[in-house]
Request: fold
Amino acid sequence: MVKSRRAGDGVSAAKKIELKAIGFVKTEAVGKEVRDKGNVSEIVFREDLAEALDGIEDFSHFFVIFWMHETSKEERRMMKVHPRGRRDMPLLGVFATRTAYRPNAIGLTLVELLGVKGNVVTVRGLDAFDGTPVLDIKPFDYWDMAEDARVPEWWKRL
Amino acid sequence: MVKSRRAGDGVSAAKKIELKAIGFVKTEAVGKEVRDKGNVSEIVFREDLAEALDGIEDFSHFFVIFWMHETSKEERRMMKVHPRGRRDMPLLGVFATRTAYRPNAIGLTLVELLGVKGNVVTVRGLDAFDGTPVLDIKPFDYWDMAEDARVPEWWKRL
Reply:
């Protein structure tokens, strides 16, 4: 048991955290097409944030953290799912999956950077729908990898 | 230029996105100690979400997406930083770095799962302060890695 330095953990559990999109996804892909690894999208950043992109072009890959805005309030209350809705998959807690049905409908995807032009960054491999609000991006480095990762058996069948 | 299927991109740019913590970080580490790769922390999930953890124990690693709540409004308006405040580093757009000074003060860290007990998950490698609100977790898989990633020269000196 890790001791906390502060009393009253969880007291602020009800407090809301307010975010504002830093940009939006632009893609011609629809439905399951967005999952195609070759899918090319643009991230159109807010113009007031263009300066904050300086230097991103020197990375080949970055993570995109986005808001899956098409997930409904009801879907965000789900506790368990069959991964990708497949009945041959076990029923699992949403946190053990990458489903969009989760309390905070945040998506996380590693993408390849193809180009930067002003406030527009073109990427490959972003599985987000057109119009998706982007919350943050993170340059990728080796510390984000676990070479020896273990995943469950069902995951390998996805 | 990717064509959008929808008109009016960016119209909702001002719209706020409201999140609620799914849990909180508990650690004895203070200051720079949290960056120690061996640092052990607990994530205490909200009790109403304990069920959503079912199956997480079968993964060795997962990403933690957290809210860097000690970042001030002023710091969130910064556009450029020297990585880790080091003057020997170039001045870069915040999105080209992993600084906490970013419009949405979101942190992303890959951690090793050590154990699960009810709504408490013990992890190694989480560089977040005691009391940090957690927004989401994502089981790690190989698709989150880029074996051939390119990073800038300054990054290697960090």
Q: What stands out?
A: Chain B touches chain A through 82 residues (CB under 8 Å).
